[in-house]
## 1
Amino acid sequence: MTTLTGSFRRRFRGRAADVGRRFESATLAHRETVASDAPASDLPAVDLAPNDPLLVFLQSSSGAVEIDTLELDSPGLAEMKAAGVKLVVPLLSQGELIGVLNLGPRRSEQEYSTDDRKLLDKLAAQAAPALRVGQLVRQQEAEARTRERFEQELEVARLIQQNFLPKQLPDLAGWEIAALYRPAREVGGDFYDVIPLPDGQVGFVIGDVTDKGVPAALVMAATRSVLRASVQRLVDPAAVLERVNEHLCPDMPSKMFVTCLYGVLQPETGRFRFANAGHDLPYVKTAEGSVELRARGMPLGLMTGMVYEEKETVLAPGESLLLHSDGVVEAHDSDGKMFGFPRLKEAVAHYPGGGELIELVLADLREHTGPGAEQEDDITMLTLARSPGPVTDDDSARMRQLVEFDAPSAEGNERLALARVSSIVAPLGLSEPRLKRLETAVAEATMNAMEHGNGYRADLAVTLRVLTDAESVRVQITDHGGAVADQESEVPDLEAKLAGLQRPRGWGLFLIKNMVDEAHEFSDGHLHTLELVMRLGADVEDEPENQPKGRGNDHA
Amino acid sequence: MTTHEVMTTVRRRGEVTLIDLVGDVNAQAELAMHEAWEEAIRDGPEAVVLNFEGAGYINSTGIALIVEMLASARKQKLPIRAYGLTDHYREIFEITRLADFLAINPDEDSAVTGAERSNT
C-alpha cells in the first residue's frame, strides 16, 4: 500500500484580481514505507503562475498526468521537471482546478502503476472538495481578520475622538449650550470643544480634519491639544488660530488639513468674538431670521504665516448660534441631492435654538437621506442659545446687535448705508434731529472708510454693525485701513479756508465728531473701526451738553 | 434712498442772482456747481442767493463746494445768502460756521429782500 505523507506546501501567487483563482500546488512525497522516525522527504515546492499553460492543460485532463512525457512551453512544467516531479494529479472541484498533487519518483524506482494512478485519482476526487472547503474556510478567516482589524482601527479612532470631546458642557446662567457628535461608521475627523476661560468667558471650538479613521483622529487630538494650550496664553480668537496653525504646519501629514472655527463668548453681554480657519459658516438665529457669521481664514496646517480675520457679534436674548460640520449640509438624499446650506439656514431661522434645534435638524436630515441610509460623514452641531427671558435691569444693560451688513467701496454707497442704518435705528426712539445727525455721521464715516480705509477698492467692503442696549445705539463702521486712526489731521478752520490757507475740503471727521455723542476708533492692525454712539432716552434731547458740539473751531 | 445728481438753474431777480440746487450736493455736483457759480457772477450781480429747497443730501464734499463759492464771493466782496435749508443742514451750516459768512433766510423773498437791503 502506498502511503502518502508529507506536508502540503502552498504557494499563492497572483495579484489581488487573481485571488478568486488562487492556485495551490501541493507537493507530496511518495514513500513506500513509513518509519516513525524518518523525516518526511519533501519535494521542493513548485510555484505555478496563474497564467501558466500547464494549468490549462491540467484543468482539462482526466486524471493523473506523467510529467516527463509532457511537452509544453510552461515555466511551471520546467520547474516541476527540475524538481523531480514525476506525476501530477489535478484536484478539481466543480470543474475548477483548485490544486495539484505533485508526486516524486517512487522510492522503489519503479514506474507508477495503473493501480497507483487509479488510487490517486480516487484520492484526488475525494480530496478536492475537502481542499475547496478548506480554502473557503481560510478565505473567510482571512476576510474576518481583515474586517476585525478594520473594526479595531475604527474603534481606536472612535475612542480617540470621544476621549477628546468634552465630557460635559458648562452650565451658563441665561444660556443653553447643547452639542451633538455623531460619528459616521468610518469615523471622520470632526471635533468640538468648550473651554472655560478667565473672566467667565467661554471658548467654543468646532473643527473638521480631512481624511478619516485613525490618522484623522490623531490630527484632531493634536489640534485640540494645541488649541487648548493656545487659549490659555492668547485672548484674541484670530491670534489663537494663527498660533495653532504655526504649530500644526510642520508635522501635518501631506494632503491633510483642519478647518476650525474658534469663538469666545462673554456670557454676560452676549458678545461673541470669533475667527474662522475655513470652516463652514455658523448661523445666528435673530428676530429677523438667520444670518451667517463670516470671517476669512485658510484652514489650519496648510501653510505657515496665515493671518485670520476676527469678527464679533452680539447674541441678544432669544438669539442662538449654531456651529456645524459639513456632515450636515453634505448629506445626500437618494437622488444625490445635498441637504445644503440654504435649508440649514432656513432651519435655524424657523426652529427654536439649543438642543431642540439639533433634534429638529437631525429629524430633517433623516427625512432627507431616507430611512436606513448609512450616515456618510461625521455630524457635529454645537449650539449656544441665549434665554429670551423677561427684560431685567441686567438685560437692559446688555448690548445686542440689530444688523450687520457690507457696503461695497463705491462712490455713493454711503447713502445706501445711511438709509439702511436709519431704517434700523428709527424705531429705537431717537428724536428726528438726532436721527438726522446720526445719518450724517454714518454717511461721512462710511465715505471715509471707503475712500481712506479701502481706497475705493471694489474687492474691499465696509462693514456696518448696528448695536443697541437700553441706553444707547452704536454704529460700528469697519474698513481695511489697518492702524490708520485719523485721516484728517487738520482741524478745519473756515476763516483759513476762505483765506486760501487751508484746502476747502477736510470736513468729514469734524462733522462725524460733532454729530454724535461719542466716537471711538479702534484697530486690530488689519481692520479699522469707527464706533459712533448716540444715547437714547427723551431726557437726552433736552440736556444742553448733548446738543451738537463744536460750534466753532475748537473741535477736532 | 437713491442718489440724485444735482441740477442747477441760475436766474435773476433784479440785481440778485439765484442758483437753484436740486439733488445731492456731493462730489458729483462739483462741475455743475462751478458752472452755475461762474454763470451767476458773470453779469456782476449785487448778491447771490443759493436755493437749497430742492437739495437732498449734502455731505462734507458738498460743504467744501459751498466753501469754494464763499471764498470766491469774498474775493469779489459779493454778499451771498441761502434759503430752503432743512433744520438739520441749517445746524450743520452753524457748526461749520458757514452761517457766519452766509446769511440764512427762510424763503426766497426774504433772501432777495435781505440781499437788496444790505446793498442799499
## 2
Amino acid sequence: MIQNLETILQNKLIPSPITTKCGSLIRLGFKPPVAGVARRPILPNAHETVQFTWDYITSLEGSGVLNKPIYKPNLIPTMDIPSLDGLNTADRFNRYAAFTKRLRKSRADGGG
Amino acid sequence: MDPFLHTLCQCARIIRRLANTAHEVAVNTVKAMVEYSGSRPFGPASTFKVYLNQVGWTIEANGDIAGPDHFRCNMLKDHCTKIVNVFKQMLTFSILTLTDRKGVGDFLPDPALSIRFFSKLQDDEQQLVKLNVAGGYQTDSMKAKRDDKVNGNCDLCGLLDTREHRLLECEAMTEVRKEWEEVCQTVPQSRPGWVYLPIPRQHPDALLLRAWTQLIKEPPTPDIVTMDDNHYRFFTDGGAINPQIASARVASWAVIQDVATSHTERKTSLDYAFGPEPHFPAFKTTALGLVPGDQNVSRAALFAILIVLRSLHKFAPDATAEMVTDASYVCLVIRAIENRVWQRISHRIPNVDIIEEIDQLWQADRFRILKVKSHVSFEQATSYEDLWKFVGNHCADLAATSVLETIPSDIKLLVDALANHVRTEEKMFGNFLKYLIQFNRCRLQKLHDFKKEQGTPSTQLQHARAAPQPVIGVFDSRLMGIEACNFLKSFGPDNFVPIPKIEVGDDLFQLCLQGADLGKALKSGLDTLKWPTDVIEKVPSDWGMSWFEMAVSFYSATGFQFPVRISGATFRTEVMTLCSFQAIIALPLYKDFVLDT
C-alpha cells in the first residue's frame, strides 16, 4: 500500500532501505526473521507500540507466526483523520488506471 | 545433553518435586503410569510411560524406575541429582544396545569414567577428541566409497587410509607413536574398538556387585545395655572399601555403646587403651553391618544413627542419649531436622529415606549429637572427655572396618578385581585420549604442510570463534528481551529528522486503491516519523523496525489497519483488514496466509 501511495504522490514516504531480516523483533524474543526497514525511525507513540508488540510476542508463547489479531480494546487514536468523501471501488480503480496511464505516457515522452 | 534424556529427566524432576509439594498427585501420576499399557499417549503420565517404554525401562507402583543391569532409582524418594545420574547411565546402556557401529561391542561401558576424563580436557583438546569420535576425521578409504575422485590412499604415506592405518601404522606419524609406544601396543590387543570409538569398559562382573548390594537387608533392631540413670551414650561410624571408586564401593556402619556406669569406671577402663594389646572394656558393640541401598560412607554414618534411634525407641523410649560421630554430614542432617528445613529441599538431598525415619524418631529435647575429630591419636586429647570421645570413635571405626573383612571371600575378590579394573582402565583410557589429541594435532599440521607444498587448499584445525565484541552505539548489542523492550520504548536519539513534508490535496487520495481515508491516514502517519540523517546507509548495528511494529504504530495512532485483498481484481477487488478478527474467520488458512503476506 505504501508503494501504491508513493506512486500516487510521486514521492518517497519511507527513505530507509527495506530489509527482509529485521532485528527488532528478534531483540524482543520473536525468533523467525521478519521484514521491515533497515534503519529504525523515532515513532511518535514508541512507548505504547513497543509495549503492545512485547505483550503480543509474549502471548504467542513461542509460536513462530504473527497470526493473532492486532486489537486494542477501547482504542483512542491520537491522530484525527478527517473523513473524505470516498469513491466506490470501481471509480477509484478507473481513476487510478487513468493516472498510471498518464504517468506511463509522460515517461515515454521523456517527461518526469 | 541428549534432548530425549533431557525430556526424561525433566519429567522425573517434575514428579519428584510434586512428591514434595503435592505427594498425592505425584503418587497418582506414578499409579497412572503403571496402569497405562497403550501406545497412544493422551496426557503427561501416559506420555512419560511411552517414553520409558521406548528405552525399555519399567516403572513400579512405589516409584522405582528399573533399567538395564540392575540400575534403579525411585522417582518419589531419591534426590533429583541421583535420578538424573541413574538416567544418564541407563540411557547410555540403551543407546549402546541399539547402536550398530564399529567400536561398540559386547561389553558394559563406563560412561562416568569417560565423562570424568573428557571434562578435564581443555576446549581445543575436547574438540580434537570429539571430531575423532563423531567422524570428523573421515578416512580416505571411506571417502573413496562415495567419491570416484578419491583413491582411498593416505596422503602422507600412500598406503590404504583406514582407521587402523592412521592410528597404528602410518609411517608419517611414527614420531608420535614412539612417544606413546605403550598405548600403541596395548590398544590393538586389549581394546581394538577404541580405534573407532574410545569407550572405557566396566568390569564384566560389575553388575554382580550391584545386584549383590541390592540384596543387603535392613538389620533387626539391636538390643542395648540398660543404663540405670536412663542416659545412654553411643559412638557411631561408617566405613567403606574403595571409597573413591563408586563401582567397587561397599560401605559398612557400626554402633558402639558406652556401658560404663561411672566416671571412675571410665578412667579405669581407659588404662587398657594404652597397653601393649589395647582393649576397651567400657565399650560394647551394639550392632554393625553393611548399608542397604547406595554404598557410600555418609549414608553408612547416617544409617548408624538411625539404628541407635530405633533401639532407643524400642527399648528405652523415655531415655536421654548422646550420639558421637565423626561425620559432619550427620551433624548437618540432624541440625536440618531440628530446624525443620530438610522437607523443603528433600528433592535435592540424598538419603531421604533414612532422614525421613530419623525425623520421626528424633527428640531434640532428649537427644544430642556430638562431633568428634576422626582418626586422631589418643595423645592429642587435651582432656579426659576428649580422650573418651577419641577412644569411642576409634572403637566404632574398628568395628565398621571389621565388617568389611567379613564380606564373603568371593565378593571380596570381586570388589578387588573391580577396583583394579577401574584403575587400569582409567590409566589406559586417559593415555589413549592424550595420544589421540597429540596424534590429531600432529597429523593436521602434517596435512597442512603437505597441502601447502602441493599448492592445494589446506584444512587447518579450526579454532572456536570468540564471541563478537559488543557494539555500544545508538543501539546496544547486548540488550535482549525486556531490556531491549525498555530501550525501544524510550528510543529517541538526537539528530533524527522527519522527511521533507509535501502538501497534497485531498483529491489525490481518491486515487488510492485501498481508499482515500486510509491513504490520507497513512501519509499523515508516515509524516510523523523521524529518520536518521544518514538513513540511506546500511548500518549493521541498527536493529531496524519491522512492518509489524509499523502496523501496530499506525493502528495505535490512527485506528486504521492495513487492508489485504481477499478476492476479485481490478474494480471488483474485495479487501479486509489484515490481522483482524474478521480476517481470521474469513480466511480458513489464515496462518499460511499471514506467512505469505
## 3
Amino acid sequence: MMARKKRPASATRRLHRSLGAGSAVFVIFLVLSGLVINHSNFLGLDQKPVSQGILLDWYGLEKPQSVLSFRVADQWLSFAGSQVFLDEKPVTNLSNGVGAVPAGDILVVAGADELLLLDNSGQLIERQSWEAAPEDPIMSIGLLPDGTVSLKTGQQLWLSDRDFIQWTKADNTSIQPDWAHSEALPENLVQAISLSYRGHGLNFERVLLDLHSGRFFGPIGVLVYDLVALVLGFLAVSGLILWFKSRGNGKRKNGRAKHG
Amino acid sequence: MLTSVFKKALGLIGLCSLPLLLQAATVYETQADFLSRAFSSSPPDPGVIWLSGERKATVHDLLGHDYPALRLRYWCQTPRSAWVLEEVGKEQPITVGIIVENSYIKNLKVLTYRENRGGEVANAAFTDQFHRASLDENTRLDTTIDGISGATLSVRALTRLANLALYLHGESGCNDGA
C-alpha cells in the first residue's frame, strides 16, 4: 500500500494558522479582561481606588502641589487640590479651600464659594453654595468666643445662625473672630494624603477598561488593538473559507469512494 | 539618565490616557436662577430636612444607596417646594433642580451635568416627561419615563431624584403649610 502524499498547506491555511497562533494571547487576554469588566460592579472594582505607585506613575498622576491643613479639635482637616481629608480619610471635594473650624459636633469647612458641614467622622451633613454674597468669595473662617462661626469676604464679616442655615452680615465692626490658621501636618498624614490624592478618580475598572481597549498603552496601544481586531476579522473569514473548502474536498472524496 | 527618560516616557503615555479621567461640567442654570424661577417673587428662607431614622431608610430604598448628605435644604412656599439634589449617573454627580407643587412635579431641570456622555438628559424634550409625575401607593413614580440610548444611567439617576423630591416634599409638610 502506497503512503498517501501529504499535500502542502495552502497559503490561506498557513496564514490562518500563523495569525491564529499569534493572536491567541490577545484573544485570551481580551476574553478574561472582558469578563472581569462585565462584573466589575459586583467585584467592587469601580469603587476600588488605585494606590499602586507604578500605576499612578503610568497615568502621570502627581502628588498634590501643596497640602493646606487645619487643626479641628483633635483631628486634622486638610485640602489637597480640590480634595478634602479628615486626618488621612478622603471625605469629599471642595474647590479653593480656605479653612475649617469645629463648632460643637460639627466641622464647618469653607471654600471660596462653598461651605461644607461635616460630622466628626467626616460624613457630609450638607454642602452649601455661598449664596449670601456670591460675588464676594469667602476669604477666612473663624470662631467668636461664644462659638458662633464667622466668615470674612472682603471687608465684610458674616455670622452663622445656630443651625448653619442662614448667614447674616455682622454690623459690629469691632468683632474679632479667632481665624483658622493652617499648620504643618504630621509627616505620616502627608504621605497618606499624597497617595490617596494621586489615586483619586482612578479606579481598577478604569485601568481594566484601558487595558481592554489598548488605551492603557497610549495611541500606539490603540493602533495595535485595531490591528488585532482586523486580524480576528480575517481569521473569521479565512476560517469560513477553509471550512467550505474542506467540505468540498470531503464530498469529492466520498464521491470517488462510491464510484471507485 | 535612563530612569529619567523612562519616567518621562511613562508620563507622556499616561497623559494620553488622562483626558478620560477629566470631565468638564456643563452648568445649565445656577441655583440662584433656578430658585428665582421657582418662586416668582424672591425665594423664601430655606428650611432643612434631616435624613435620619426611617426617613433615611426610605431614601436608601428609593436611591439604592444613602444620600451623600445627612440633611437637605429646601425652599417652601405652600404648596410649592423647590429642591436642589444630586445623584451620580455613572461616575459624576448630576445636580438637578426640582419644583414640586401639590405632590406633583411642576418642573425638573438639570442644573449641572458633569459626565462626559449622556448629557441629552438635560434637554427639555426629556425632562418634560416628569411634568405632572406623582408618587403611587408604593412611593414610586406613577409615570413611565422613556429612556435615552447611551444615557441609561443618567436617565435612571434623574428618575430616582424625581422620586426622592416627591417623597421629601411629602415629608417636609410643605403641601399643608407645616
## 4
Amino acid sequence: MNNAFAGQVLTLARRSVVRTARQPANVIFPLIFPLLLLAVNAGGLDAATRLPGFPTNSFVAFALAIPFIQGALFATMNAGTDLARDIQTGFLNRLALTPMRGVALLAGQLGGIVTMAVIQSLVYLSVGLAVGVRLESGPVGALVLIALAVLISIGFGALGAFAALRTGSGEAVQSLFPVFFVFLFLSSMAMPRNLIEIDWFRAVATANPVSYLIEAIRSLIIVGWDGQALALGFGFAVAITVVAVVLASLALRTRLGRS
Amino acid sequence: MKALAVARGVAWRTLHNVFTNPSLLIPSLVFPLFFFVAFAGGLSQVAKVPGFDFPLGYTAFQFVFVLLQSAAFGGVFTGFGIARDFETGFARRLLLAAPNRTGIVLGYAGAALVRWFVTAAVLTIVALLVGMKVGGDGVDLLGLYTLALLLNIAAVLWAAGVAMRLRTMQAGPVMQMPVFLVLFFAPVYVPLSLLQGWIHGLATVNPLTRVLEAGRGFLAGSPTEVGVAFAVALGLAALFSLWALRGLRSAEAAG
C-alpha cells in the first residue's frame, strides 16, 4: 500500500515537473524576474547602506533574501494555475475514478513545487555568490537556507493548491498573486524594521509573517547564525505550511466528492 | 471625421469594459497606490542618506515616479485589452467594420488616457491626504501631468503595436517587461547623483531619467531639463505612433 502511494506521488510529481518544464515561460520567468528586481533594487538602493544602523554595507547581500520569496510566489502561482486547469479540463474528475488517493495528488503537486524551489534556490544563491555576496553562515548555512526556501515554497504552494481546489479557476489563482505581493511589499523587504520610519508601516511589517521569512533567510546571508531569526522564520514557515496543507486537503476532499 | 467616429466607438467600448469590470479596474487603481505606499512609507529613511537633496521629502520624491509609472502601465494595461480583443476575434470584426482603421488605434489611445486620468486623480488625492508637499505652481504641475500624459500615450502605442503584431494575450510580458525595465532603470529610489556603478551608467543614458527628473523638478517648483524631457516624451510618442500604425497594417495583412 505504501509502495502504491509512493508510486502515485512520484507519478504526479513527475507530471507536475514535466508540465512546468514544457512551458519555458513558467521556468524562465520565476528565475529571471526576481533577479532583475534584485539588480534594480540593489543598484538603486545601495545608497541606503550609508544610513546609520544599516546591518551591512552591501545592499545586494541585504536584498538577496527577496528572490527566494518572490520565486516561491511565481512558482506557486504557476503550479496553482496548472492544478486549476486540471479541474477545468476534467483531468481531476478522471483521476477521481482511479484508485488514486486524494492526498497523493496534493503531495505530487507539492513535489513539483519542491523541485522548482530547489532549482530556483541554487540559481539565486549562485548568482549572489557570483556577484560577491559572502554567506556569513557558510556552506551549512546554504543548506539551511535552501531547506527554508523549500519549506516556504511548500507553504505557498499549498495555499495556491487550496485556491485552485476551492475555486477551480485559474484566474482566481492568478488573482491571489497581488495579495501575496502586498504581503511582500508591506514587509521588511527593502529596509530593516528598526529603520522603517513610518510608524504604521513598521507596525504592519512587524505583524506580517513574510517579514520573518525574509529576515530568517537574510540572517543566514548577512549575520551568520541568528537563532531567534531562524526560529521565527522556520516557525512561521511551518505554521503557514500546516494551515495551508490542511485547508488544501479539505478542499480536495470536497472537490473529489469523497467523504 | 470617420476616424474620430471609430475612435469614439472603440474608446467608449474599452472604457465600458474597464469601468464595469472590477477585475480590470481595481488593479489599475490599486497598484499605483500600493507602490506609492510601499515606496514612500517603507523607504522614507532613504531621504536621510547623505546627499539626498530633494527639498519636498521622500513622499513627493516617490509620488512623481509612481505617477509616471501609473501613466506607463495604464497604457500597457490597455494593450492587454487589445490583445484580448484579437484573441477573442472581436478585433478582426472591428477591422472589417471600421471605415477608418486608424481610428481604432486612436480609440484605444483615448481610452488609455481617460483610464489614466482616473488613476492619476485618485493617486493625487491620496498623496495630498497623506501630507505630500507641493512646491510648484499651477504651470509647473501642468508640466508634470503633461509629461505623464505623453508617457501614457507612448506606452499605449507601444503596447498596441505589440498586441497588433502578436495578437495573443501571451504577448503580455513583451508589452510589460521593457516598460518595467526602462522605468526601474531610472533613478527610482534616490536622485541620479546618489546612484553608483552600472546602475548610474544605465540611468544616465536612460531617456526616462530626464522625464523623471523634470517631473520632480516641476513638483518642487524648480523646473529642470524641461526641454530635453518634453523632447524625449514627444519623441517616444511619435516613434510609437509609427510602431502602432505599422502594427495595424500587420494585423490587416494577417486578415
